[in-house]
Amino acid sequence: MDRITFTPMWLDKPRLARTKVDQLRAAKATKKEISAAEAELVAAEASSESVPRFFIKLASIIERDQFDAEMEGTYRAAEIAPFQLRDIAVEGLTALLEDEAGELIDLINAEYGGEKLEAKEGAKLKAAIDVLAELWPAYRTAREQEARRARMVPTLAFMRWCDGWEGLSDRKGVAVEYAREKGVIPDEILRRIDPLVIRVVGLEAYSTQYGQGQAGN
After folding, report:
1. Are 58 and 175 in contact (CB under 8 A)?
2. 125-174 pLDDT, tens per residue?
3. Counting beta carbons within 10 angstroms of the beta carbon of residue 185, is it exposed (0 to 12), middle (13 to 18) or buried (19 or more)?
4. Which of 139, 136, 86, 143 shows the shortest CA–CA distance to 109?
5. Could you tell me whether strands 3-6 and 53-57 are parallel, antiparallel, or unpaired per DSSP bridges?
6. What whole-number distance in Å separates Cα of residue 168 and Cα of residue 166?
7. How far is the C-alpha of 93 from the C-alpha of 98, rounded, in Å?
8. Which residues of the chain have pLDDT under 50?
9. Around Cβ 138, how many Cβ atoms within 10 Å?
């Protein structure tokens, strides 16, 4: 079974220290600053503290599609494309404001097209969107779906595709052993892992299935 390794940057102290040294050298920092960073690097490399390594399974196309189908069907958390959210917002503004919606629709289209809005324009659009979320059910439902997906994808991807780890400890410094039950990592183990670690590794696991991850680097 194919799998790749991944370590969140902030957990790899030697790597962080090397990056800091390289950045200081590139910026032509003072000799004192570089020497201090080099000392941190030596200490990090000499430390007995292990660097966690997570193993991410490379799922088959069918497994990937099953995951997405579960997100859409079971959890009502299908992905919403930016243009879909824009279209729902335009529909709502047109229905609620009729002829007065033109300026706001122009702002939405400008933002969707990648333009940077002026502070005043951005504030005006945000206020309108906040009202839209209250008064237009379709838009409110779409934003709730977005939020549901953003919260659930990392955890479910971690449970499904994190295929093991090494060097992982809980907040008390006690080693966390890897285990699976019924195809997923059980809650009693997940509760011992830093939620940020679950989120970052989970996002990496999901992105990896689409060839967008950084694991193995």
Report:
1. no
2. 999 999 999 999 999 999 999 999 999 999 999 999 999 999 999 999 89
3. buried
4. 86
5. antiparallel
6. 6
7. 7
8. 216-217
9. 14
